[in-house]
Amino acid sequence: MSGSDLSRLLLALQFTDSSFPSGMYTLSHGLEGLAQRGEVDARRLPQVLHSMLRHAIGPADSVALALAWAATREHGNRDAEAPMEALTRIDRRLHATRLTRELRDGATRTGKQVLDLAAELLDDPVVSAWNGHVRARRSPGSQSVVMGVVYARGGLDQRDAVAADLTAVVISLAGAALRLRLADHRSAQALVRGAAPVIEEVADAAVGTVLEDLGGFAPILDLASCHHENSDARLFAS
């Protein structure tokens, strides 16, 4: 592996690590709401996770990341400000597809935290320009759009960028399952490993998708999130 390849791998490993201070540990991505409604238990957990990847996260977040990556690659080498318009369109459309407040807030809160730190760590003009754009409230700053910019500027190819972000989400979901007592430490690792073929499938589907097709369809997850917003007690912000 060349030095350039290794640097890209190290970037992906750092940003997907569960210890990276993104705030993802506060999110269950709707899993807690499903558990509260009795829609998931330990036996059904892998099937539920795969459905979330295929029908909610993949068509929305992964597509947005792939589109943000493409917009950054297309415009970013000419002028740091050049991708801002295209990125804003993607970001706003993704934000509009989230039907519940807690899913919108969770995505933008983690996105802004990651973006602010990425601007410091990478010292890249396009990442810094997007950070300034989001901080000025010109765009919501969804986490997947942020990662599209970061991974594009970090040199990852589009499919690897999508797969890296999906891996981070799956690790976050496995951690949530552990805290919700839907899994133990061993079964949580089996959950992550078992999701690998689905991550490949979803990443392949996201690459080449157009903006007009961005958006998932997971009504049970949306209903669970609506219930979760108003629950009396909860471990997670989403």
Account of the protein in words:
It comes from Dietzia natronolimnaea. It is found in: Cytoplasm. GO terms for molecular function: nickel cation binding. This is Urease accessory protein UreF. The structure is a single chain. The protein is mainly alpha-helical and 238 residues long. The protein has one domain: Urease accessory protein UreF (Orthogonal Bundle), CATH 1.10.4190.10. α3 packs antiparallel against α8. The radius of gyration is 17 Å and the shape is globular. The model has no long low-confidence stretch (mean pLDDT 93).
Shape field? globular
Distance between the termini: 39 Å
Named CATH topology: Urease accessory protein UreF
CATH homolog superfamily = Urease accessory protein UreF
The major β-sheet equals: none
- Using only C-alpha atoms, the radius of gyration works out to 17 Å
The number of distinct helices, counting runs of at least 4 residues, comes to 11
Q: Strand fraction band?
A: under 5%
CATH class: Mainly Alpha
- By secondary-structure content and strand pairing, the structural class works out as mainly alpha
Indicate the low-confidence ranges by residue numbers.
none
What oligomeric state do the depicted chains represent? single chain
N-to-C SSE string, H for helix and E for strand: HHHHHHHHHHH
